[in-house]
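Recap from last week: sequence in, structure out.
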Amino acid sequence: MKVRYFAWMKRTVGVAEEEVVLPADVRTVGELVEWLRTRSGGHAEALAAGAAFGTAVDQRTTTFDALLTGAKEVAFFPPFTGG
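Predicted structure tokens:
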């Protein structure tokens, strides 16, 4: 699965994207976040509990309880506003 990071999250993690093989027990976006936090200090900082960021699975915004079954890409991005 491809994991992509945008804006300050990319700088904090140190990469714009990475390919990961998910452990069998990672089935939701929330579980992915918890697992990614263990990969490096940058991951832990960017995906810290309480940090404000959004998620998308296969280019559709979603919540942490979304299932990853069949997903090809997950993206993390800071909050944004429109007008």
